[in-house]
Amino acid sequence: MAPLPKRLTGELAAIDEFIDRFDVFLFDCDGVLWSGDHLFPGTVETLELLRSRGKKTIFVTNNSTKSRSDYLKKLSSMGVPSSVDEIFASAYSSAIYISRIMKLPAPKNKVFVIGEAGIETELRSEGIEFLGGTDPSLRRDITPEDYTNIANGSMLDENVGIVLAGLDFHINYLKLSLGYQYLARGAKFLATNLDSTLPSAHSFFPGAGSISIPLISMTGQQPIALGKPSQAMMDSIEGKFQFDRKKACMIGDRLDTDIKFGLEGKLGGTLAVLTGVCKAEHWEADDAPVRPHYYVDKLSDLRG
Amino acid sequence: MAPLPKRLTGELAAIDEFIDRFDVFLFDCDGVLWSGDHLFPGTVETLELLRSRGKKTIFVTNNSTKSRSDYLKKLSSMGVPSSVDEIFASAYSSAIYISRIMKLPAPKNKVFVIGEAGIETELRSEGIEFLGGTDPSLRRDITPEDYTNIANGSMLDENVGIVLAGLDFHINYLKLSLGYQYLARGAKFLATNLDSTLPSAHSFFPGAGSISIPLISMTGQQPIALGKPSQAMMDSIEGKFQFDRKKACMIGDRLDTDIKFGLEGKLGGTLAVLTGVCKAEHWEADDAPVRPHYYVDKLSDLRG
């Protein structure tokens, strides 16, 4: 059992030592930098402090509907200065994983996408061929002919080697039928992330995990997930940034995704904030499955 | 461990004794009476034989998109003479369960339906108020306003007490969002059936279970299922037909749905046929979880 986390809020010497210990800080965004449309006071100044001390800041998000440049716009609109190179989202993580880790041989390496434009942008940026996605011809009801043509393969692209499922606001029966059929014929199964819910408007809506789970249930196959806490995402991040894991710290508000992601990735540190989902009581229980190394009440407490 | 089933094919005396033992025969349809669009030879004559010996025949199907009268048309189109009163489908089973077993007090007893017209017909026949279903205003993309109005409840009917999920060929993000929100606010969760796949065109397509599973994953709640092998369906059948379970026999081609349904319902008998999914090797294994009492190679072997 890991020890209880050290609280840094108000402990100036401990904060200084904490910051000195790491070269790289990985940030979850919602619940850490902001909540919904509300930027937490001191967020920008905290990032500036870390950068002024030579630290690398990386924003890691499971949001699969946005490309990095979409997400940069989101950060800018929230008033958080950043650059594309600091952003690591699950759509990009998926593209990197396909192009640099899976490396399926052509021609059977096309990707059937269930998801939105952010995934397409990132696949394109890695030169990966794909179909599905936002294709308007798939945004329709299934027809009697479709059943025959899907089952006999005439509606399928025989070069599909991967099904990638992310959050799709236009999910329908036809796309699920096609996704199933590709998987049943041997395509590899990837998911941008497995979060069953998406926080929005102070409530929850279906997340990317709610798009892939019918396919999991139909095929009995588990996808490789590219979002937190999957280590496939950590491998992708490390592949890109080439940092020393012992000198990196993951900062987040969720024990089961952010903190678990950092711990399983054997990062040198994990820091929880109490401005999101997680409460101190979650790690205080004797049987708490995940405990961060440190916590602060709010991110801006790192300013001392 | 149950003993191996007795093979009746070709055993005239045993068949005669088998038929004499039961008053009621419950039939699964696809894989027993027909396969796809192909009626097995001797099906009609076998049903006539049983009826001529005074037996009650009941057709039990997990198909949730059809009402009983829709299903009667299906039986007629296959050349199987029947009547509405002999048909028990999961949409009807769901309606019976809601009206005669759950009996939620008005006004908070409306049903939010995710599914097709068959469910609506059966709910209407039991006088149950509902919304959703085939409502064309829900067959559209989610809008930014929807997030707010779903989350704050202004788009919801406060009298919804039940979410009923069946096979919906028009499933979309909006319906899943509404279904989740009703469940999160305390509605009871029912599913017509939990089959993840639907056999069609000699392949598989998403079944009713693929519609409910995102809601299961989002809420952590398991629905009460009204299809085989759920005993809620057996209770509904018994509630309607008032038969002696010891004098009833379930006939089917699937061990995990049909035969399990009969065994868990403590029917006097279960008969497997080898014209569908199930093979003899499935129950011959030492660790076979389900063994029928009897089997025939094909249903028409009961004609002796």
Automatic annotation (TrEMBL), chains A, B:
<dbReference type="GO" id="GO:0004035">
    <property type="term" value="F:alkaline phosphatase activity"/>
</dbReference>
<dbReference type="GO" id="GO:0005737">
    <property type="term" value="C:cytoplasm"/>
</dbReference>
<feature type="binding site">
    <location>
        <position position="253"/>
    </location>
    <ligand>
        <name>Mg(2+)</name>
    </ligand>
</feature>
<dbReference type="InterPro" id="IPR023214">
    <property type="entry name" value="HAD_sf"/>
</dbReference>
<keyword id="KW-0460">Magnesium</keyword>
<keyword id="KW-0479">Metal-binding</keyword>
<dbReference type="GO" id="GO:0046872">
    <property type="term" value="F:metal ion binding"/>
</dbReference>
<dbReference type="GO" id="GO:0008967">
    <property type="term" value="F:phosphoglycolate phosphatase activity"/>
</dbReference>
<dbReference type="InterPro" id="IPR006357">
    <property type="entry name" value="HAD-SF_hydro_IIA"/>
</dbReference>
<dbReference type="Pfam" id="PF13344">
    <property type="entry name" value="Hydrolase_6"/>
</dbReference>
<dbReference type="InterPro" id="IPR006349">
    <property type="entry name" value="PGP_euk"/>
</dbReference>
<feature type="binding site">
    <location>
        <position position="30"/>
    </location>
    <ligand>
        <name>Mg(2+)</name>
    </ligand>
</feature>
<dbReference type="InterPro" id="IPR036412">
    <property type="entry name" value="HAD-like_sf"/>
</dbReference>
<feature type="binding site">
    <location>
        <position position="228"/>
    </location>
    <ligand>
        <name>substrate</name>
    </ligand>
</feature>
<dbReference type="Pfam" id="PF13242">
    <property type="entry name" value="Hydrolase_like"/>
</dbReference>
<feature type="active site" description="Nucleophile">
    <location>
        <position position="28"/>
    </location>
</feature>
<feature type="binding site">
    <location>
        <position position="28"/>
    </location>
    <ligand>
        <name>Mg(2+)</name>
    </ligand>
</feature>
<feature type="active site" description="Proton donor">
    <location>
        <position position="30"/>
    </location>
</feature>
<keyword id="KW-0378">Hydrolase</keyword>
<protein>
    <recommendedName>
        <fullName>4-nitrophenylphosphatase</fullName>
        <ecNumber>3.1.3.41</ecNumber>
    </recommendedName>
</protein>
